[in-house]
Specification:
This protein has helices at about 1-40, 45-50, 75-90, 105-115, 120-130, 140-145, 150-160, 165-180, 200-215, and strands at about 55, 60-70, 90-100, 185-190, 195. With about 220 residues, the chain is of the alpha+beta class. It folds into 2 domains: about 1-40; about 45-215, 3-Layer(aba) Sandwich (Glutaredoxin). α4 packs across α7. It is globular and about 50 Å long.
């Protein structure tokens, strides 16, 4: 009985200790999560993630970030508009962030195109899929990439080798898109402006002008 009495007196103290440990762990976890979110949404991570492919002028005075999906019809529609504007302007850098929200085929396509970087064929691979006029399938993705000059077998081997870093890149893209509150593709960051969707060259020009004005303000 005495032993039981001693244990009963010790139990509340033990429970308090567990509670304090739990609170500490939650606080640490919350702090870690907050730091991770801050890192993901930092200016450098959003605009200059070194693992994200870019097109246009690498030294341009303005970066446009696009969150896109290769099966998104609106992404396909806007691609030539943005490409033409980038060429005309000459000072725009495009950071392309795959956000495969249309399912497994989108994710597989994104990973394969990203893997083509390791043979310096990213732009060709990207253009082949974003410019495809037929519905993407498991088989024609390989055909489209091959016709664009991509060594598909090498891309698949590189994907296996670099699977972890490619998966991490896609996870960062998704975390950013979610944090910005984007609901669909395409979605953009123009300079420091969050823009859920743009589909015309005229709208891009207006957004670019506003972003450059904002950047010039002290």
């Amino acid at each position: 009985m005495r032993e039981q009495s001693t244990r009963s007196r010790q139990r509340p103290t033990f429970l308090v200790y567990l509670s304090l440990v739990a609170v500490t762990l939650v606080a640490q976890s919350t702090a870690a999560f907050a730091q991770q979110a801050e890192d993901i949404l930092s200016r450098a991570s959003v605009l200059r993630d070194p693992d994200i492919p870019s097109l246009g002028n690498p030294d341009g005075d303005l970066t446009i970030v696009e969150y896109f999906d290769y099966q998104c019809p609106y992404c396909k529609k806007v691609a030539p508009e943005l490409a033409q504007l980038t060429k005309e302007d000459g000072k725009i850098r495009i950071a392309l962030k795959d956000w495969p929200i249309f399912g497994a085929l989108s994710a597989a396509s994104a990973k394969l195109v990203l893997a083509s970087q390791y043979q310096d064929k990213y732009s060709q691979a990207h253009d082949a899929l974003i410019g495809a006029t037929t519905k993407l399938t498991g088989s024609n993705v390989d055909d489209l990439l091959a016709k664009a000059g991509v060594d598909v077998a090498k891309a698949k081997a590189d994907l296996q080798t670099h699977q972890q870093s490619i998966d991490a890149l896609l996870a960062r893209n998704e975390a950013q898109a979610d944090a910005f509150g984007f609901q669909a593709t395409p979605a953009f960051i123009v300079g420091t402006f969050r823009i859920p969707g743009i589909l015309t060259k005229a709208a891009f020009k207006e957004a670019i002008a506003d972003a450059r004005k904002a950047a010039d303000k002290p």
